[in-house]
Write a structure and sequence with these properties.
Blueprint (H helix, E strand, L loop, with lengths): L1 H15 L2 E3 L1 H11 L1 H22 L4 E16 L6 E20 L1 H68 L5 H35 L7 E3 L14 H11 L1 H21 L5 E15 L9 H7 L2 E9 L7 H67 L5 H34 L2
Parallel strand pairs: 1-4
Antiparallel strand pairs: 2-3, 3-5, 5-6
Helix pairs in contact: 2-4, 3-4, 4-5, 4-7, 4-10, 6-9, 7-9, 9-10
Length: 430
């Protein structure tokens, strides 16, 4: 007995330790931890770095070099510039700066990197919206399944009592024995529905936890009441147009066209000339080894051998093996491909929003009608239950009414959560 008591306490503590999360808490958690969302933010940061790299190309590059070498055999004597058989030590020092004084491609790449950054920001928001849509659907699927299970559970316990009561009535002759068979047959159906409902609850919760990247069943998902607020809109057509214009997918498609145009300009910049500059400073120290002659000291040679060079170059492309021409044509094809991709994305966006808006309107109207029908089914069931207890109807007819009432319960639960679900889906696109 102590063993069973311990297990019961453990189970109670386990469930009491679970946190209660509303839909908003689920969405907030996913926004912070979902791998797809975080990868989208990484892409934004990557494009910021690429923008900095593109801007950095306007600055000069500076390099310093130091070399230490030995020459053995026939070589040039640094003291008289005559070729002799000598062993010579060389120490070379240099610094060089290179800069593109004018290269139109560098400026275009800066513009492209800015556009890529903005596009990645819209894409990151689109990823977040997709994650939210998925979690909303899974959250309400779980709520539907859980509510249906809550409707069935009292029915199972109630029918057990009804079977026992009917068997006693059969024993005293108040009811026909066929009533017991009818009740037990209906009880088997209800039990089957209860088992299926329990499985649906468990599977839907697993799916929701997985979407949140939670591997342990440590969360209890609950409604908070405020999620049932109606979505304010007058015209579905006006709503769709407004939501499309505000959607990051639409903004990303517009930005992608700008990116395609910018890439085309970059390809065409290959026809333009460029101007580059270079400055170089160098000096060296040398010493003949195994020679009786004393070489000038290091500081004197370092100062005397200094050399500076300034270079200004103009590069004019004349023939590039059709490389630039083909790049331009490829960029034009990429632009067309981007336009076609944008058309598909916009069409899919309109389709998604139209479906959600239609389902919202349908769910709202259906919920209103089912509420009215539910009241009628409830009154019919209560009256039939009284008749059954008074022996005015048999078990078969009573359970027909009972099943109709259960179906009305199921339909009402679904429609109620459908309204909430479609409302939350529309809010994502606001």
């Amino acid at each position: 007995m102590k063993k069973y008591s311990f297990l019961l306490i453990l189970i109670v503590n386990l469930f009491s330790a679970q946190e209660n999360w509303t839909l908003q808490q689920c969405l907030d958690y996913a926004q912070k931890t979902n791998p797809d969302v975080r990868q989208g933010l990484l892409e934004v940061n990557k494009n910021i770095r690429e923008k900095n790299m593109a801007t950095g190309k306007l600055l000069p590059s500076v390099n310093a070099n130091v070399g230490h070498s030995y020459s053995f055999g026939s070589t040039i004597n640094p003291s008289n510039n005559a070729r002799e058989a000598l062993n010579v030590q060389y120490d070379q020092f240099s610094a060089q700066a290179n800069v593109d004084l004018f290269n139109w491609k560098n400026y275009l790449n800066i513009g492209l990197s800015k556009l890529n950054k903005e596009s990645s920001e819209y894409r990151s928001q689109s990823i977040l919206n997709d994650v939210k849509l998925n979690i909303i659907n899974l959250f309400f699927q779980y709520q539907k399944n859980k509510s249906w299970l809550e409707v069935l559970e009292p029915q199972v316990s109630g029918m057990k009592e009804q079977i026992a009561r009917t068997e006693k009535e059969v024993e005293i002759g108040n009811r026909a024995k066929s009533d017991v068979y009818d009740i037990k047959a209906n009880f088997g159906t209800i039990q089957e529905q209860w088992i299926s409902a329990q499985n649906d609850v468990n599977i839907s919760k697993i799916n929701l936890l997985s979407a949140l990247n939670i591997n342990q069943d440590s969360i209890n998902f609950v409604m908070n009441g405020s999620e049932a607020e109606a979505f304010p809109f007058i015209s579905k057509e006006n709503l769709i147009e407004e939501l499309v214009k505000k959607n990051p997918v639409y903004a990303e498609t517009q930005k992608n066209i700008e990116i395609a145009n910018q890439r085309l300009k970059i390809a065409k910049s290959g026809y333009l000339p460029s101007i580059s500059g270079q400055y170089q400073w160098s000096t060296f120290y040398s010493k003949v080894l195994n020679s009786g002659n004393i070489a000038p000291n290091f500081s004197d040679q370092f100062s005397q051998n200094k050399n500076q060079q300034v270079y200004l170059g103009l590069n004019i492309p004349i023939f590039q093996q059709f490389h630039v021409k083909n790049n331009v044509e490829i960029s034009k094809l990429d632009k067309l491909n981007t336009e076609y991709d944008n058309q598909k994305k916009i069409t899919e966006l309109y389709k998604t929003l139209n479906i959600i808006a239609e389902q919202y309107s349908n769910a709202t109207e259906k919920n209103r009608l089912l509420n009215e029908n539910f009241e009628n089914q409830k009154l019919s069931f209560e009256r039939s239950e009284e008749k059954y207890r008074e022996g005015l109807i048999d078990a078969y007819n009573f359970f027909v009414v009972r099943n109709n009432w259960l179906q009305a319960n199921y339909n009402l639960i679904n429609s109620k959560f459908d309204v909430m679900q479609q409302t939350e889906l529309l809010k994502v696109f606001e």
